[in-house]
Amino acid sequence: MEKKMNLKVALKYFLLTIFAIVTLFPFYWMIASSLKSGFEVIQTPPTLIPNEFMWNNYSVALTMAPFGRYFINTLIVTALSIISSVIIAILSAFAFSHLEFKGRDFIFSLFLASMMIPGEVLIITNFKTISALRWMDTYQALVVPYMANVLYIYMLREFFLKIPKQLYFAAKVDGANDWKFLWRIIVPMAKGSIITICILVGINSWNSFLWPLLVTNKESMRLLSNGLTAFQSDAGNRYELLMAASTIITLPVMIAYIFLHKKIMSGISVGGVKG
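RE: above sequence
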């Protein structure tokens, strides 16, 4: 019996190791390619370890596009997206969990049904709306269409529903209105889920590529991920510089996830499972 248990444990760790290697290999390949020469990065068969480490690829990559301006734009868009998404998620989740109004459950069901619509389907409609409002090349064009996210509203609503109704009624008896009850009692209790939402929104905003490319014509309004197009031309692609720029852009997200992944998982589990 003990041998069977040891075999199961060994098999489990073996499979986890294989999955970890498969998951991490693309990141390793990106970093390794960023340190290769232009010839080595396209040679066949490929090399797993660079023959010569070309550290200057990073400095050259930073001069191929105005990454300083892209970085500022990305920080602004990420901050605005986090603030707006969190506020909308908190207010919506409170309305769907504690306020009584006609059609509340039906409206929330429609919200949940909208999660089955692929985001790509909405791009044309959103683009037409932004064009009609003359918001091209503005920060609101980059932030407003994605301020509300049903997943985040659902996460917070499930957490809010766990809060006993007696606490809500007690606050009412003490003279607290809905606004005070929300911000002074519920929000501090839901800090873990709110931090998780902040992290997820921040990662999505930081990695956004297609939408900023569609609604910005001026180079000064584009984001970090859009700077990767600077390494593509009719004459060919500079893959080693592209990988160097990709590493620079991806590194902050990877570091953030390494230090905050426990908060992400705990926030999702707390908000997504109703007790």
